[in-house]
Amino acid sequence: MSDAVVPHRVEPNAPAARSGTGWLKRALDSDIFYSFRRSRMTMVAAAVTILFFLLAIFASQLAVQNPFDPAQLQLMNSRISPLWTAEGQSPFLLGTDEQGRDVFSAILYGLRISLVVGVLGVIFAGTLGITLGLIAGYVGGAIDGLIMRIADVQLTFPAILIALLVNGVAKSVFGNRLDAMSTLAVLVVAIGLSFWVQYARTVRGSVMVEKNKDYVAAAQLIGLPAPKIMLRHVLPNTMGPILVIATINLALAIITEATLSFLGAGMPDTMPSLGTLIRIGNNYLFAGEWWIVAFPGIALAGLILSINLLGDWLRDALNPKLR
User: Fold this and answer.
1) Which residues form the ABC transmembrane type-1 domain (predicted)?
2) CATH number for the domain including 227?
3) Residue 46 in contact with residue 310, Cβ under 8 Å?
């Protein structure tokens, strides 16, 4: 009697157990990570950007003083030059300003304010623009025409003018009732209303292409509601351009906030961002206290440059024609 051949039984959970880190391996083997490793400039930009975020997160642990707390400020320590100069004093590494604030501590806390306003502004602009773009592209008709005409009108004005208009209207309505946190919220809304158009136009174009494909017709056939089709099926296929726009707009949002603060329409002197610190230091530039404006300006320029380099790399990495 011949022996029966018993096929080897494969446990269904065995491959999953052996590939617990399979997602990490796939990420490391992806074309995007390969492109990232090939560009030393991009790796340096990513490291600098992460460093700025870490400095902002751990500002309270790294700072010599809390520049937002008047009780920790002493006018006797005002206008001290950086530590490596002949008139420098410890522990003021980058010197102090006219109020006795340590410039390094002020940069750390100001960096936190600038990043919070920039990130929240991008989130608000992205949420508004993506929502309107999905509605315009999927529904079409008169709603599409209305949203796109509003977008076309807004594109005729620079973003900084839109932000100044929104900020001015808010201050005229609320007046002196705006505290520092309310001013921050107004800046977020002003920046968000300035940059939503790019998201809306990009998402609308992608949705108009995707909604004619078979998987959308199949989802409509089985009776899925329109919001679920847009969010679950159509939106994921438009995330590539959205990520690129969000990265570049983060730098633009930080610049816009700094510009508003420099013009006196942003954060107050008691809770300064990088733009406010530059405005304050600009008043003492010709008096010889160059460090008050120089170091916040260098920090802002380094942050914007690193984010822009990341945005340029991400745009090229997600472009299928360049692979």
Assistant:
1) 111-311
2) 1.10.3720.10
3) yes
